[in-house]
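Many introductory courses stop at the sequence. We go one step further.
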Amino acid sequence: MNYTFTTIVQQEDDWFVAKCLENDVASQGKTLDEAMDNLKEAIELYYDDSETLPVMKKTYITTLQVAV
């Protein structure tokens, strides 16, 4: 079965850090594609031995403007 996960990617110096919002799994890579490929593998490994399938919730992503 295929699942769709929500991810955020941030560039930190020379690395791209990819994080999954549904399960807090993260990975990194030297390129955006590498970070996403590594995150996909990490998520697959996270659920590989699990008998519990992920519970998918609706996730909303937006921006918030704050005066600081």
